[in-house]
């Protein structure tokens, strides 16, 4: 019996010694490394959701940003783009960003005005008159101050992108004279300035998401809308609304936003890569917006069923006078600070 016990003890000791030796051997051994797999494990993915087509100024700028960032980060960051509201529409994308369900979105200014009321200044009609004025303001000191307003809602503002000036498009009749708006239903984004803009014209403002707009026009739930030529062409709105009036009355632009917790999780060198890529993509966007709207206007002119109208100087002056109360509305609702700064910048 003692022999069996002694043998069992010796066996256990030898087994434990073997296990310890094996662990030490494998810990000290150099195993083959799959460098490609290691690189994939280290790669950071940014999911970028937006609601317009890829062949628009925003869609193209998103693609450009993704390419630039992948290059600048040596593949450490990969941007996956979801256009056309594939993941979220313009009513729920902000919530998705705040939940980090996506890391980047690029909503219109107007969609952000409930969160950042001061941004309503960018919706004021006839505030800007040229693309150069827009670029100087949004890419300069004032644009930086506006983006800094996002610090209060834990969102990282990266840049402003431009889509261009808005025009009017309708189905039954062209919208040229102020009285043409009487009692019609016009799509307006959820901005107090934009909704009041159409109410001043005697129209009824209807709030609908961008991805539902085409269907609602088809169903005659909306009679008219304001939009850029690039959106009118790329989304095929000209197929269901055939009267376009070139008014250049307002700006359609975007804020490029990132989830702040995600931003803070990036190492400093990768944050710098993001900012560098965004700066280049933004400069490229402003040039692309001018070119695309110009090219899409020529394409629209070739559509036999499309009627393109322009405002006379006299009519445009009437529009400006009609919209003047919106400036007082903004000052009373938000304050005059940003409006004064922009007007001072434009008058230099």
Overview of the molecule:
It is a single chain. The protein is of the alpha/beta class. Helix content is 48%, strand content 18%. The chain has helices at residues 2-28, 35-42, 57-72, 93-98, 131-138, 141-148, 192-200, 210-218, 229-234, 260-265, 268-301, 313-323, 325-333, 337-346, and strands at residues 44-49, 77-82, 104-105, 155-170, 185-187, 204-206, 224-227, 243-259, 307-310. Strands 1, 2, 3, 4, 5, 6, 7, 8 and 9 form a 9-stranded mixed β-sheet that branches. The protein is globular, with a radius of gyration of 28 Å. The N and C termini lie far apart (105 Å). The model is unreliable at 1-40 (pLDDT under 50).
* Largest beta-sheet characterization: 9 strands, mixed
Order of helices and strands: HHEHEHEHHEEHEHEHEHHEHHH
Radius of gyration: 28 Å
Distance between the termini: 105 Å
Low-confidence spans: pLDDT under 50, at least 5 residues?
A: 1-40
Structural class: alpha/beta
Shape call: globular
How many DSSP-defined strands?
A: 9
- Count, helices: 14
- Provide the residue-averaged pLDDT: 89
Helix content: 40-55%
Strand content: 15-25%
Topology:
Blueprint: H1 2-28, H2 35-42, E1 44-49, H3 57-72, E2 77-82, H4 93-98, E3 104-105, H5 131-138, H6 141-148, E4 155-170, E5 185-187, H7 192-200, E6 204-206, H8 210-218, E7 224-227, H9 229-234, E8 243-259, H10 260-265, H11 268-301, E9 307-310, H12 313-323, H13 325-333, H14 337-346
Parallel strand pairs: 1-2, 1-3, 5-6, 5-7, 8-9
Antiparallel strand pairs: 3-8, 4-7, 4-8
Helix pairs in contact: 3-11
């Amino acid at each position: 019996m003692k022999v069996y016990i002694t043998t069992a003890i010796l066996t256990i000791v030898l087994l434990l010694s073997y296990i310890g030796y094996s662990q030490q051997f494998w810990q000290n051994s150099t195993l083959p490394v799959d460098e490609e797999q290691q690189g994939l494990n280290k790669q950071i993915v940014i999911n970028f959701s937006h609601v317009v087509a890829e062949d628009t100024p925003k869609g193209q700028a998103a693609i450009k940003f993704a390419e630039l960032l992948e290059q600048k980060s040596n593949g450490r960051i990969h941007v996956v783009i979801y256009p056309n509201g594939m993941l979220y529409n313009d009513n729920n994308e902000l919530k998705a960003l705040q939940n980090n369900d996506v890391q980047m979105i690029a909503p219109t200014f107007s969609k952000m005005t409930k969160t950042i009321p001061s941004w309503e200044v960018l919706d004021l009609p006839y505030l800007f008159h040229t693309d150069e004025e827009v670029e100087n303001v949004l890419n300069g000191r004032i644009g930086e101050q506006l983006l800094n307003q996002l610090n209060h809602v834990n969102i990282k503002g990266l840049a402003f992108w431009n889509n261009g000036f808005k025009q009017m498009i309708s189905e039954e009749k062209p919208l040229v004279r102020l009285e043409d708006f009487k009692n019609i239903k016009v799509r307006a984004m959820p901005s107090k300035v934009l909704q009041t803009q159409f109410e001043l014209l005697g129209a009824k403002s209807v709030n609908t998401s961008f991805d539902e707009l085409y269907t609602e026009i088809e169903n005659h739930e909306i009679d008219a809308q304001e939009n850029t030529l690039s959106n009118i062409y790329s989304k095929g709105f000209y197929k269901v609304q055939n009267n376009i009036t070139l008014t250049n009355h307002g700006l359609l632009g975007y804020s490029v936003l990132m989830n702040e917790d995600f931003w803070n999780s990036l190492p400093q060198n990768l944050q710098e890569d993001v900012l560098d890529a965004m700066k280049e993509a933004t400069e490229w966007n402003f040039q692309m917006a001018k070119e695309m709207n110009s090219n899409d206007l020529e394409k629209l002119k070739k559509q036999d069923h499309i009627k393109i109208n322009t405002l006379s100087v006299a009519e445009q002056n009437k529009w400006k006078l009609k919209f003047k109360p919106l400036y007082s509305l903004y000052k009373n609702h938000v304050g005059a600070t940003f409006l004064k700064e922009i007007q001072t910048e434009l008058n230099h």
